[in-house]
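ARCHIVE CARD
Drawer: 12
Card no.: 0347
Subject: one protein chain, sequence and derived structure
Cross-reference: see card 0346
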Amino acid sequence: MTVNIPEILVSSETELIDLFKDFHANPELGFEENRTAKIIEKKLNEYGVDQIKSKIGITGIVGIIKGKKSSNRRIGIRADMDALPIHEKTKLSYASNVAGKMHACGHDAHIVMLLGAAKYLAATRSFDGTAILIFQPAEEGLGGASKMINDGVLKEFPCDEIYGIHNWPNHSSNKVEICVGPAMAGAAFFDIEIVGEGSHAAAPHNAKDPILVGGTLVSQIQSIVSRNMPPLETCVVSVTQFHAGSAYNVIPETSHISGTIRYFSEDIFDLTRKRIKSICNGLEVSYNIKITLNIRKVFDVLVNDELLSEAYIEAAADVVGKENTNIKASPSTGSEDFADFLKITPGAYCKLGHEGNFALHSPNFYIDPKSIAVGSSVLSRIIEKRMPI
């Protein structure tokens, strides 16, 4: 496959890959990306961007690059920065130096894709308007996008359009996909605390057993999708944690259940929330036990604008070739807080394929470093195409 990468990025490939390896070896969790942010700020200064603002959303950074011409057009491109609390198993020469932390979603590569775009755009400035580069912290369920928005990032640096990119380990190297419309699911997390009465395990009649109630609760929650959802709607309800007890011979007093809900419709989310609440209320009465439920939204549904998706896929086609693009990709039940930006500013979010063998969030996750220059080129091209001289 022939890929159209600008000469500036070709000659910078070693520098960009070295940056990527450094970020990968030194992962930082959400809102803790202090080292990462300092390096980003240093590189933006080296590349000659016109303005840098740090500490937006705690550790977020914005870089501003003005084009050769100065129309009022302003377009944003965004990358996420944070790692995950995962112990890396890749055995790469640049594997994580930090126990229990890993860039297992490729945000290290996303940072460098945006830095590569910064270097190219600052050097060429072949556009009419202003490019706004947003380095966002804490995408992994901690609300980094909303924190930046609440800190005024889109008021201080308003965008007419905004674009994001994510690596996709699907063995389709350098192929770009976009799903028009609702593309990634909204997500909520739930926590359920069950408080009963403990006893000796040999005398269970003296207990109000929170494990028994918890097991029943898990089973009934799993029936929501199969028995309460319209068959053509999409919903995922997954219980991911069940904690109770610490001894072989003691029925504990409490148990704790956690999980996630994924959805594309607010009506479906509301139905799911009501059903979980109803199940908890019913079991509370049936077992004469106390159940506390907390459900909190974490991600909105990510919705790609139709016309801007077409513009984005055309920009990607200039880099990877039209035959390696797809604007009819299927929606994903994964979630992304780039959705928060898209609720305010129209835009689109694409997936860039690479030859990684393991899924996102796997301790064996690997991203092909050669995809970085491709991502930088796609981000640069959308700026040039949407603000032509």
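Annotation on reverse: The chain is about 35% helix and 25% strand. The chain has two domains: 7-183+301-386, 186-298.
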